Amino acid sequence: MLEQGREVAYAVDVAGGGPHAVYLTGDFEAGSALAVGLGEAGAVAGPAGHVVAVPMGLPPGEHVLRVRAVRGRSVLDLVTVEPAAPATGFELAGPATIVGDGKVLLGDEGRYDLTVEALVTVTPAAAEGHGDVVFRATQLADGFEGDDPRLGIDFLLGYSVQLRADRVVLARHDYDERVLVERRAALDLAVPHRVMVRARGSRIEAQVDDAEPIRWDDPLPHLTGGAGIRVFSGTIRADRFAVGQ
Q1: What does the pLDDT look like over 20-30, one tens digit per residue?
Q2: Rounded CA gap, 22 and 15, in Å?
Q3: In the chain, what are the domains?
Q4: Cβ–Cβ < 8 Å for 23, 51
């Protein structure tokens, strides 16, 4: 527990200098704020859900990172230091397609707060087939011997918004799949659907067409990664795919 006015210090080793972000994950009292820096003074920031994000310019080498409670109470579970996310947006130059099973990142990696807008069409080859938009995704891999994309369909860290014939699913991936929220909906997958994803701190909002958005606040979220598409047992085509803040 970090009470107002108290401070903790962490040893950090920065591989390369330049713009970075410090992410503090935990539970934060309403109205709380933390000061984060290498010296006595620090940048002051409040939480977005379960995350406080502080942009910082860091020189390479070993440093002592100080975190001080300016207002309220905080419980810190994880401190992460990463290079700063891209400041510019990304838009796909042409359509992207995956046939069978697989996943690919289309947008920049390393994004934290992000908005994804995709126009996707899914053609399932089996009843359980689905097409997805993935985001904050890292460590994509295929499966086992032979690098089988079907066996490795869940081999990633991040999140997916899945379009299925009878429902929309928001899932978390840690080299497995955990359904966070699902909403029943009869989707004609043969026609394009607009998928919007907005991630701010630990809070995720996903919307398909004009339906009510699905919302989730992840207590220990994946913080950064790329955005792209994924398909299980079918074909997915993205005619539009744009990523920004």
Answers
A1: 999 999 999 99
A2: 14
A3: 7-83 (2.60.120.260), 90-244 (2.60.120.560)
A4: yes
